[in-house]
Amino acid sequence: MAFTRATGKHRRATRTARTTRNLAGIATLAASGVVASVASPALAATSEAAHHDTGLQQAVVMGDELAVRIEAQADAQQAAAEATAARAKAEAEALRLAEVAKKKADEERAAKVRAAREAERKRLNTFVAPVTGSYVSTAYKASSGLWSSGSHTGIDFHAASGTSVHAVGSGTVVEAGWGGAYGNNIVIKMNDGTYTQYGHLSSIGVTVGQTVTPGQQIALSGNTGNTTGPHLHFEARTGPDYGSDIDPVAYLRAHGVTV
């Protein structure tokens, strides 16, 4: 006797077909390395359909949970790696900025040192008048019986006794003491090889061998020696001895001093 299915009714898939589909799903998971180890025991038990269904379902659930844990762990590892990279980048940038700042500071410090040295060099090469704010009261080569040579071997600067007398430039003191007709006098060998002399001083403030700089006070003007009144006698010379005099006004002007 034959039996027929009612129209519009669908027969449930056989146990074998369901098992086959589930196996295909697990195989896909296994191929991705997620649940291969978990699903293997279930696949080995193909002879027991009921256990198949239960085992495969458990394997899928466990595979999903494992995948979530693996993904979370991967995310955490990636976040840690990114944080480490960010710290390394920040440290490298901080080091770079520190090096830039140090280089800039070193350059600025070196520039200041160079500027200070240049300023000191200029100062040491600068010439000044021997008496500040004074004027020439007796010219060079003026004629008079007051001088043994018959003419003035230097120039006189108007100055009351006790007026500050300055070195006109940088040099070394080669004479400091009594100078006969010059009274108390100082002779300085200048750094350029010339000599300057300061006469009729009331007091001397330097010693032989001492180095002096432009504008440094070396004495006080006075009225000692062969003189008719207090003033400063100033000479420029090519050598340390009397008779090697040169025009003091031209000498000072050649070094930038207006007299």
UniProtKB/TrEMBL annotation:
Residue stretches in coiled coil: 73-122
InterPro entries the UniProt entry points to: Cell_wall_metabolism_enzyme (IPR050570), Dup_hybrid_motif (IPR011055), M23ase_b-sheet_dom (IPR016047)
Name assigned to this protein: M23 family metallopeptidase
A Pfam family annotated for this UniProt entry: Peptidase_M23
Keywords from the named record: Coiled coil, Signal
Domain M23ase beta-sheet core: from-to ranges: 151-245
Signal peptide positions on this chain: 1-44
